[in-house]
């Protein structure tokens, strides 16, 4: 269960006008590389996304529930659900199931009146963060982030920092690798970036 929860690297950064989420693509089952093109960032809406670490089925189901809940909320109220309320919804589900937990660690990022980033664990604990890294590669990734993070950094610099953080984890962590996916979200803005490890290394050397 510990390997299932932590065998990955996910990163979140909240900067002045954007939130940036990043993850590697490797899915593992113990020491076996089960899949090399896993998408660990799930788009929930045009202003919100979630990164997943843990059991794929649990993460996909939680993301589907959240997406449906946002759609229902919008239909009933005529408004968009805030990122904070969405994080609380996920935390409530996880907390209510804590005796038979969903094996996931989630980073929820989005933009309502400002960029927001939440870290939610499998017991339903929820914290708002400026930057965060989860998974087996997080000890390496967080060091890169802390060395380069500034809250007023540009989107380009934030994407570069997130990419370098995940890339550094793939060099040291056997459970992370095979590519890097990044999502940036701002006011009326949702952009995806995709890199092979070779492409990320070339950008690192440039």
From TrEMBL:
Transmembrane segments: none annotated. This is Proteasome subunit beta. Component of the proteasome core, a large protease complex with broad specificity involved in protein degradation. One of its GO terms (biological process) is proteasomal protein catabolic process. Its EC number is 3.4.25.1. It is found in: Cytoplasm. It catalyses: Cleavage of peptide bonds with very broad specificity. The 20S proteasome core is composed of 14 alpha and 14 beta subunits that assemble into four stacked heptameric rings, resulting in a barrel-shaped structure. The two inner rings, each composed of seven catalytic beta subunits, are sandwiched by two outer rings, each composed of seven alpha subunits. The catalytic chamber with the active sites is on the inside of the barrel. Has a gated structure, the ends of the cylinder being occluded by the N-termini of the alpha-subunits. Is capped at one or both ends by the proteasome regulatory ATPase, PAN. GO terms for cellular component: cytoplasm; proteasome core complex, beta-subunit complex. Keywords: Autocatalytic cleavage, Cytoplasm, Hydrolase, Protease, Proteasome, Threonine protease, Zymogen. HAMAP family: Proteasome_B_A. Signal peptide: none annotated. It comes from Pyrodictium occultum. GO terms for molecular function: threonine-type endopeptidase activity. Belongs to the peptidase T1B family. The formation of the proteasomal ATPase PAN-20S proteasome complex, via the docking of the C-termini of PAN into the intersubunit pockets in the alpha-rings, triggers opening of the gate for substrate entry. Interconversion between the open-gate and close-gate conformations leads to a dynamic regulation of the 20S proteasome proteolysis activity.
